[in-house]
Amino acid sequence: MIQNASQANRIVVKVGTSTLAHKTGLMNIQRMEKLVKVLADLKNSGREIILVSSGAIGIGVGKMGLPQKPVETPAKQACAAIGQCELMYCYDKYFSEYNHSVAQVLLTRDILDSPERKQNVVNTFQNLLHYGAIPVVNENDTVAVEEIVFGDNDTLSAIVGSLVETDLLVILSDIDGVFEQNPRENPDAKLIPRIPEITDAIRALAGDHGTSLGTGGMITKISAAQIGLDAGFPTVIMNGSRPELLYDLLEGREVGTYIG
Prior knowledge:
This protein is of the alpha/beta class. It contains ten helices and eight strands. The protein has helices spanning 17-20, 29-44, 56-63, 73-96, 109-113, 115-131, 153-164, 200-205, 218-231, 245-250; strands at residues 10-15, 48-53, 102-107, 134-139, 168-173, 194-195, 235-239, 257-259. Helix 2 crosses helix 4 (73-96). The longest helix is centred in the N-terminal third of the chain and has 24 residues, at 73-96.
């Protein structure tokens, strides 16, 4: 396992709905453009980038003008189908401006339950990276039902990290990292810059609530980091509102919370 993010060559970056979309559910165009620019530049430097992107359901909700995310599975699936088109259109458009190709990869948990199908996924990732494409991964929410869902893209990003044997997982959140107390309740709460192992005390620090458009929370990020530790790679949880901080992170500076 690498000891510093600057040593990472293959990087899985997970971006959440709260980073990609405004509270209205509509695309945060400025944020997305900044993120793509930074990731394209990191790829230009020789690193391999795999992007796990949430946002399909939330963006579908916004595009259809719905007041909130639906509760019923068929309605969520419909929003995912609408939003996924918009999401990939934007990624393709913005990455193309920097001469990079993207590839959509949609997964459900049942695919990984079969050794043969799992190996097919691994082979696809290997070839996409060999071709120099940037895989954009999401859960296949359009067909996913309770029995085959990952549940959240934090977990999915860690599983993808295991499949591609990543050096580093970076989870972009709407919070700076893991704090000693809830920073939304205590503005003086201190950020924990490094966590060598995930203990019960660390799990207790994590809340269980995501945003109105997203599905995760800090607890899912901690769980994803544990998957990473078990697979041999560290995880960094950092704020996605300033994608340019990825430069600092990969130059070895302290950004967010480094778990590993």
